[in-house]
Design brief:
Blueprint lengths: L2 H30 L10 H29 L4
Helix pairs in contact: 1-2
Length: 75
């Protein structure tokens, strides 16, 4: 491959890896999520549980959005 083709192939591999990492992170969250973890918790503990879940999902969203935004710049 010419240098331009090699650079483009490397960029596509990096984008694929970024998308895969975001997907794996979401799959991991879905696998680990147990809403029953709130059974028997106080209201404050339940609120803290859901706050952590929201924070984790926000981080996943940021990672996924960044990966998707990168793909829009492919030329």
């Amino acid at each position: 491959l010419p240098a331009t083709g090699r650079r483009q192939a490397a960029r596509l591999r990096a984008l694929t890896a970024a998308l895969s990492a975001a997907d794996e992170r979401m799959m991991g969250w879905m696998h680990d999520f147990q809403p029953a973890d709130t059974v028997g918790l106080s209201a404050a503990q339940t609120a803290a549980f859901w706050t952590r879940q929201i924070q984790q999902l926000h981080q996943i969203q940021v990672q996924t959005s960044a990966a998707l935004d990168s793909t829009r710049r492919i030329r």
